[in-house]
Design goal:
The protein is α+β, with helices and mostly antiparallel strands and 95 residues long. It is built from 2 helices and 4 strands. It has one domain: Ribosomal protein S6/Translation elongation factor EF1B (Alpha-Beta Plaits), CATH 3.30.70. The radius of gyration is 13 Å and the shape is globular. The mean pLDDT is 92.
Length: 95
């Protein structure tokens, strides 16, 4: 498995429980893909550089995860289909 950093922005209109549920949903997506979550770092609500889906703010979350390379495409597909996630960025961190 390889190390990745997954950064995603959660829809700002969700309440605190909704944001927590969205984070848990993304964690479960990683686990279902055969990976593991090493660290979760919620940054909180921040202003976006440009509007995304007519939203100017979002909840930023950064996760350190380990995933097998073949699971990446399915994880990205499911993140794109998620209504709570406005944007995501998955970057490989190991050499």
């Amino acid at each position: 498995m390889r190390n990745y950093e997954l950064t995603f922005i959660v829809h700002p209109e969700l309440d605190k429980e909704g944001v927590t549920a969205a984070i848990e949903k993304v964690k479960q997506l990683v686990l279902d893909s055969g990976g593991q979550v090493n660290q979760v770092d919620p940054w909180g609500k921040r202003r976006l550089a440009y509007p995304i889906r007519k939203q100017r703010e979002g909840y930023y979350v950064v996760m350190q995860v380990q995933l097998p390379p073949e699971a990446i495409s399915e994880l990205e597909r499911r993140l794109e289909l998620s209504e709570e996630v406005l944007r995501y960025l998955l970057v490989r961190t190991d050499k």
